[in-house]
Predict the structure.
Amino acid sequence: MKQFDRRLPRDMAMKKKRVPVSARILEETNAVLAVQAKKNQMSLAELVAHVLDDYVIWLVKTLKEEEDKKKR
């Protein structure tokens, strides 16, 4: 599995317009994220939003790389 750069909670700032999303996550995931959000003086919602943003950046990049490989 490839290693990708990820931001730490302290490197995350809310700058763009956001829309609400509802999701059910594992209790263990919630516990880890809640601790990190509190340590970095941010809400759990802010941290979850940034984690999803990072995932989408990774996903788009990965899909683009796979598409480029198919073209070769």
Observations:
- The chain is about 55% helix and 0% strand.
